Amino acid sequence: MRTLGLDVGTKTIGVALSDELGWTAQGLVTLKRSEDDLQSDIKSVSELVQEHEVTAIVVGLPKNMNGTIGPSGEMCQAFAKQLENEIEGIQVKLWDERLTTVAAERMLITADVSRKKRKQVIDKMAAVLILQGYLDHK
């Protein structure tokens, strides 16, 4: 029973995967978003679901610091809804992701990862933090 964690942005989707017991999250991949082709993005996620025998997806929901949902949050809600409609038998949950990208950036800076490398892995790392937060809560 694996869970996929997604950090959905306008240009990329960071992806993390839980272990089979649902205890830990590991970074999997960063997908490039297809311009104006949501179906291609859904297909890419669907392939990962099948390949890794995923039973649930956690999509990070970026909220404003006051708890309201802005344009990015609305885009993530729509993406989650589309995933749920397109991928049969999968549970899709939204998870508050406030400051996960900031936390991921700090972790990478502390680890002395170069700016160029950070840019390549930041979304995947944010997805790990989203998924791990969900797994810990569960």
From TrEMBL:
<keyword id="KW-0540">Nuclease</keyword>
<keyword id="KW-0963">Cytoplasm</keyword>
<dbReference type="InterPro" id="IPR006641">
    <property type="entry name" value="YqgF/RNaseH-like_dom"/>
</dbReference>
<dbReference type="Pfam" id="PF03652">
    <property type="entry name" value="RuvX"/>
</dbReference>
<dbReference type="GO" id="GO:0016788">
    <property type="term" value="F:hydrolase activity, acting on ester bonds"/>
</dbReference>
<dbReference type="InterPro" id="IPR037027">
    <property type="entry name" value="YqgF/RNaseH-like_dom_sf"/>
</dbReference>
<dbReference type="InterPro" id="IPR005227">
    <property type="entry name" value="YqgF"/>
</dbReference>
<protein>
    <recommendedName>
        <fullName>Putative pre-16S rRNA nuclease</fullName>
        <ecNumber>3.1.-.-</ecNumber>
    </recommendedName>
</protein>
<dbReference type="GO" id="GO:0005829">
    <property type="term" value="C:cytosol"/>
</dbReference>
<dbReference type="GO" id="GO:0004518">
    <property type="term" value="F:nuclease activity"/>
</dbReference>
<keyword id="KW-0690">Ribosome biogenesis</keyword>
<dbReference type="GO" id="GO:0000967">
    <property type="term" value="P:rRNA 5'-end processing"/>
</dbReference>
<keyword id="KW-0378">Hydrolase</keyword>
<feature type="domain" description="YqgF/RNase H-like">
    <location>
        <begin position="1"/>
        <end position="104"/>
    </location>
</feature>
<dbReference type="InterPro" id="IPR012337">
    <property type="entry name" value="RNaseH-like_sf"/>
</dbReference>
<comment type="similarity">
    <text>Belongs to the YqgF HJR family.</text>
</comment>
<comment type="function">
    <text>Could be a nuclease involved in processing of the 5'-end of pre-16S rRNA.</text>
</comment>
